[in-house]
Amino acid sequence: MGIQYALIHEWLTPEATGGSELVAQEILRCYEADVFSLIDFESQQPESFFYKRKVTSTFLQWLPGARQGVQKYLPLLPLAIEQIDLRGYDVILSSSHAVAKGVLTSAHQLHICYCHSPMRYIWDLTFDYLQQSRLDRGLKGALTHYLLHRLRQWDVISANRVDSFIANSQNTARRIWRCYRRNAEVIYPPVQLERFPLREQKQDYYVTVSRLVGYKQIALIVRAFNQLGRPLVVIGEGPQLPEIRRLAGPNVQVLGFQPDAVVADYLGQAKAFVYAALEDFGMALVESQGSGTPVIAYGRGGSCETVRDLRQHPEGATGLLFDEQSEADLIQAVEEFERQQKRFSPAFIHQHAQQFDRNRFTERYTAFVESRVRECFGR
Fold it and tell me: pLDDT tens for residues 330-368?
């Protein structure tokens, strides 16, 4: 009998289809694995990769509002993930940005975790989460602080259930070490660059594509472009969509959700792609470069690994990085970009992006998994 694989992913829902979901899909192209998730609302969607695929979910599936996101049930996530029974499998492949790495395994099993990020709510974004939820004061605030403290304890303990960590960037690997004191192999996630062909001719507008949530800093971008008066296109949906529409000046188009082909078209024709979030990797940054479109991005986190900054690479730049998440710094970066625009080569930018192609991910991920399988099982 061959080796039995299981894939664990946090949640499968149309409301959350980002980079981590693309990684899960690519893993399933590499390995025939049974799928487990806290919730599953994708396998019934005809347009979904997971359509008609058997997915085993947890009790969270039946709680009110689960489809819109189980983050509201944050204290229950560890309990739910520990209910998943994996006794029939040899290799556990988790795709984790919250609790997937915390599944219970046995000594005879191999658990390899592709970590998109240690759980943001309880580490890097604790105070943002509390402030946005209005849980940063009073009795509710004290209780929430205590719950997050206990979640951090569980998170560190559950990291010891993983045999090998893979990180999606050097930035994430450093955070894994800081939170868990575990080393991680860096394998960049698969970017579907075939969807973003080189476009040499650019139009006179800027674009940003993102989920419209607080830490993505879309409101900051819109406020900066209101001051600049330059044309900006905002693509994406999320809880901040009404706020972004109210904030947008006459020079800003807020398009909401758009099909993949429309997104690719806007990215390909834009003067530049603008991004102000602190990301662990940032697939959209690479997708825009795949189109030959330069990037103006906040210069911390994954952007430092995927974007060649003009100041450091004057003869081979793919974008401009700014130092602070502020309107003033972004405005200054846009104005500097316009002065230096002729120094960016769409063909070079496109070529630079190819190192993040999905085929590179497949080669490196399968090589890593197979080496660990040989070490563990001798085959």
Answer: 999 999 999 999 999 999 999 999 999 999 999 999 999
Using CB atoms within 10 Å of the CB of residue 45, give its burial: 0 to 12 exposed, 13 to 18 middle, 19+ buried.
middle
Distance in angstroms (rounded) separating the CA atoms of residues 166 and 285: 21
Please give the model's pTM, rounded to 2 decimal places.
0.88
Pairing of strands 319-322, 295-298: parallel
Which residue(s) pair with 268 in the sheet? Answer: none
125 pLDDT tier (thresholds 50, 70, 90): low
